[in-house]
Specification:
alpha/beta, Rossmann fold, seven-stranded parallel sheet, two-stranded parallel sheet, 14% strand, globular, Sc_DH/Rdtase_CS, EC 1.-.-.-
Amino acid sequence: MNLTDRVAVITGGAGGIGAALGRRFAAEGAAAVVLADLDADAARAVAEGIGPVAHGVGLDVTDEAQVRALVDETERRCGRIDLFCANAGVATGGGVEAPDADWERAWQVNVLGHVHSARAVLPAMLRRGQGYLLFTCSAAGLLTAVGDAPYTATKHAAVGLAEWLAITYRDDGVRVSALCPQGVDTPMLAGGLAEGHLGARVIAASGAVLTPDQVADATIAGLAEERFLILPHPEVAGYARRRAEDPDGWQAGLRKLVRKLRAADQ
């Protein structure tokens, strides 16, 4: 996909990867960029910084009626949606002992948020015989977010959903990509580090932390080639192969890293 003259919607657009995507899409010549976020004021501020092609709105991706209303309003104003980026996500830093409310929140945002967007935009895309869905799934959806069971489980589900959509609708003209970065310098990672979350510490220890703008660059390249997996950290492909070929060895390596981090705390 070439972004020139395209209409794009980005959830979680008030910061991090979402804001970086918005800036880059506008720089690529997008006709309109809609930044939707739970923090409506922050989304509007980012849009103002981008310029007249951008528009910031409030959105709770767990509320399907709000998602449908956003899609309807964007199609009314702009005529169509060429690219819908389901980018909103939440982490918990918890294990299986995490409260049910944390598990439910992760499911609602990280999985059903994608379901709601697909339900809302697919009918018009299928009628036109073209469209693009981009899901931000995280490398955790291919590997594991050590220390965060709800995030791991829901991001794996998000990748599975993206793959199902790609298989089901590609022949009808709808493209699907799963964006799977590893460590990214966002408020989510910073907050995890501040709270001492093990997963955030593992990412920081890896030394492979990209800026949101670097992720946006990789996304543009992946969209141009219409790749299903967009991997801003190319090494994730190698990790996934090792995990598939030798799951016991892969898990042993992660356990060793966890032991090292925990020993440093003592």
